[in-house]
Design brief:
Layout lengths: L19 H40 L7 E5 L2 E5 L13 E2 L1 H8 L8 H14 L12 H15 L6 H28 L1
Antiparallel strand pairs: 1-2, 1-3
Length: 186
């Protein structure tokens, strides 16, 4: 058996390497795709927390306490410092505690919880829930306190709280859709 070892020649010249402008443009395009993907991941994480919080609030909502539990047949209201890990088995829960419990581990101080609080607060005050930013802990605490005051208003109902979470989720979904369209064009 004989092997043909003759070289194959091509008639065309090799393609020139892309110039520095093309390489920079491609690098910028890929960086933009990475940024859009990271924003979508943050939005999806916040949307997940809001969905789980909505489910928890629909199962039982409370005012004037972070959450309530039943121990030895007695209803206990948990107030004071928020210890979200204790609220996992709660009977009823308030808006901010629901976000904290569903954001475990890390509670309200974690970046996803901060963004969820920011989304709820923004929608409550007439804005839209972009929720892919992170705020300083003091800002998050002030927003959470404002949401607690809103949750504990005497005329507040569970349906109002669920409507806020639903509106925040819808706002996040709109932002996410726009980002996905932008990513498809990138």
């Amino acid at each position: 058996m004989l092997l043909d070892t003759t070289a194959v020649t091509t008639t065309g010249a090799p393609a020139p390497a892309p110039g520095w402008r093309a390489r920079v443009a491609e690098r910028r395009r890929l960086h933009r795709i990475d940024r859009l993907g990271a924003r979508l991941a943050r939005l999806d994480a916040v949307a997940g927390v809001l969905q789980r919080s909505s489910n928890r609030l629909a199962a039982g909502w409370t005012q004037d306490a972070w959450f309530t539990t039943v121990q030895d047949g007695l209803l206990q209201q948990h107030v004071g410092a928020l210890r979200a890990e204790q609220g996992v088995g709660s009977e009823r829960i308030c808006l901010v505690a629901a976000v904290a419990v569903e954001s475990l581990p890390g509670s309200i101080t974690g970046p996803v919880a901060q963004r969820a609080v920011g989304a709820l607060w923004s929608v409550l005050h007439g804005g839209h829930a972009a929720s892919d930013w992170s705020t300083a802990p003091g800002v998050t605490a002030a927003r959470a306190y404002d949401l607690v005051r809103w949750n504990d208003a005497p005329d507040r109902r569970a349906s109002d709280v669920l409507a806020l979470v639903t509106a925040s989720s819808a706002s996040l979904a709109r932002t996410s859709t726009l980002l996905r369209e932008d990513l498809a064009r990138a």
